[in-house]
C-alpha cells in the first residue's frame, strides 16, 4: 500500500518519427488525463540540445498545462539556476503563481540540462560551470526576489532538486523541501536524505524536512510488455554510458533490435532493479517499499515510454492498483 501522494515528472520525450510540435500538443493532453486520474502534481524538466528530449522551457509548459487544467499542481523539476538570472525566474514563477494561486511549484536545480559543453556555455553566455558559492547565491537570490521584489500575491512553492549531499546541505540550510533524484543517482538517495534531515533548519518555506523521491516507473499488464516499453529509454541510457548524448528516442521495436553489449545489459539491469518496472502488483510493491525505506512524503514517477497512450496507461494502472490495495 502507498500512503503518500503520487505525482509525475514529465520530460517531454520527442519520439523517433515525430516532431517536437507533436510533443508540445501532447503535454496539455497528458496534464488533463493525469488530473482526471487523481495525480497530485506534474513537474517539467529543463533540457537542451537533445534529440530525445524537447528543449521546451518549463515555465512555458507549466503555463500551457495550467490553462488546460483546474486543480493539479504544476511546476518545474526543475529550472536550472545557473542558466537564468535569479530575478527572471522569480518574475516568471511569481506571475504563474498569481495567475494560478496555490498550484505552482518552483523546483530549482543546478546542472546545465545538457551534456554538450558548447550548449552549456551558450546558455550561460560564455561563462563556465557555476561554483558551489555561485549556485548558493543564485538560489538565495531567487528566494529573496520572490518575497521582496515580485510581491504579486500568492508565492510559488520552492523546492530544491538534489542528487548529492552538497545539494542536501544547501536545502537543509535554507529550510527548503527537496526532491531527490533517485531516477538519476539511486546510489546516493539514502546518503542525501540522511544529510538533509540531520541538518535541516526550519524556515518560512518549510517547518520540517519534506521529501519527494523521484523514481522511474514503467507499468504494463505483463512483465514482458513493461520491458518492451522500457526498451527505448534503455537505448538512450546505453548511449550515455558511452558518453553519447545525441541519441534519438527509438520506437520499442527498434529498441528491441538494438545490440546491447553484455556490460550495458548488466548496468541497465542494475539500474532497473532500483526503480519500478513490471506489472501493477510489482510496481506498486516496489514503490511502497521505496516510500517506506526513504520515509518519503511523496513519490514522483517519471515514465519515459514511447507513445502518449502507453505512458498514460502506465500511470493509470499504478493509480488503480494503489486504490485497489487500499480497499477494505
Automatic annotation (TrEMBL):
GO terms for molecular function: monooxygenase activity; oxidoreductase activity, acting on paired donors, with incorporation or reduction of molecular oxygen. Gene3D superfamilies: Luciferase-like domain. SUPFAM superfamilies: Bacterial luciferase-like (SSF51679). Keywords: Monooxygenase, Oxidoreductase. To bacterial alkanal monooxygenase alpha and beta chains. This is Monooxygenase. It comes from Streptomyces cellostaticus. One of its GO terms (cellular component) is cytosol. The keyword Ion transport does not apply. Pfam families: Bac_luciferase (PF00296). It comes from the Bacteria.
